Amino acid sequence: MSVISDLRGTRRTLVFFLVPEFTLLPFSAAVETLRIANRMLGYRAYEWRLCSADGEKVTCSAGIGMEVDTSIAQERKYLGDEKRPNMVLVCSGIDVEAYDNRSVNAWLRETHNRGVALGSLCTGAHILAQAGLLEGRRCAIHWENLPGFAEAFPQAEVYADLYEIDGNIYTCAGGTASLDMMLTLIGEDFGENLVSRICEQQLTDRVRSPHDRQRLPLRARLGVQNAKVLSIIELMESHLAEPLSLVEIAEEADLSRRQVERLFRQEMGRSPARYYLEIRLDRARHLLVQSALPVVEVAVACGFVSASHFSKCYREVYGRSPQQERAGRKPTLASPKPSVAA
């Protein structure tokens, strides 16, 4: 308790900037973590307010409307007085690629230039990058959005981590990762004793490492136990833009081509070539709905030598052309129809 009492005067003000269709879970996890910290401390060490571009109510992706306290015009005025925040967190979610507000970008740049820490929850890194704030910076974003983000902002160092802290830029992948990032911030302010007490209140056993997996391990995700098959799939996933040949895959796995074929038919119900095609098309689908890349560039980024071959394969697996997917724009992230082993 002595460490906490010594720091009793510590106070932080955070602004949560809400983008239409922001994801509720990472936002609520972050706010609740701050609320519990205040309760454990016995005073309001953390204050926060909600902001939107125009000061009007914002609806999250779950359809719940959220009243806000300020607009960006008001927040710009606050930068010069006692209401200046310590941190601004951009909260977004689905369809973040379609959000382009120059006034917001300018405000974020001004906020950064005034020495205020910036951060993001879920897909908010996209907006920070759009404002030109992530060049040469490590950052994290939700795994579904990572392919499109990497193509759109090649100067940003994006990782499939739970969260990244690079100087005064804090980004997290969303979901419960915002809880881990906020606990890390609170730990920097008040130490691990307070963090442990908050974890007990939240029924959380630990603060996860920034570099913990966003997604389930392949073994759990695919329901596959064979170590050789899993290592081959990891190899495929790391070579999507320039696919390896089956001979190269077999050599890396220290197996014969025939053994690789047999293992995939036994474990995955299809040939390795077919499985490789499907994961490349899955990446292409994310790029189509989450980026403005021309279809031909999406094809190249996913290892197809021609747009026509890409379109043919895409239609076969998803039942529609890449152009039709792009026209729909709204991501549904449904699984491809079951394939027939090639």
What does the model show?
The protein has 342 residues and is of the alpha/beta class. Helices cover 47% and strands 13% of the residues. The chain contains 16 helices and eleven strands.
- Please summarize the sheet with the most strands: 7 strands, mixed
User: How many E-type strands?
Assistant: 11
User: Helices and strands: which structural class?
Assistant: alpha/beta
Measured by DSSP, the beta-strand proportion falls in 5-15%
Helical content class: 40-55%
Rg, nearest Å = 23 Å
Distance, first to last CA: 64 Å
Unreliable spans are: 1-7, 331-342
Shape field = globular
What do the pLDDT scores average to? 89
- Order of secondary-structure elements: HEHEEEEHEHEHEHEEEHHHHHHHHHH
- What's the helix count? 16
| Order of the strands making up the biggest sheet | 5-2-1-6-7-11-10
How do the helices and strands line up, and which of them pair or pack?
Elements: H1 2-6, E1 12-18, H2 24-41, E2 46-52, E3 58-59, E4 65-66, E5 70-71, H3 72-78, E6 87-91, H4 102-113, E7 117-121, H5 125-130, E8 138-140, H6 146-152, E9 157-159, E10 163-166, E11 169-172, H7 177-190, H8 192-202, H9 218-222, H10 227-237, H11 246-253, H12 257-267, H13 272-290, H14 295-301, H15 307-318, H16 322-328
Parallel strand pairs: 1-2, 1-6, 2-5, 6-7, 7-11, 8-9
Antiparallel strand pairs: 3-4, 10-11
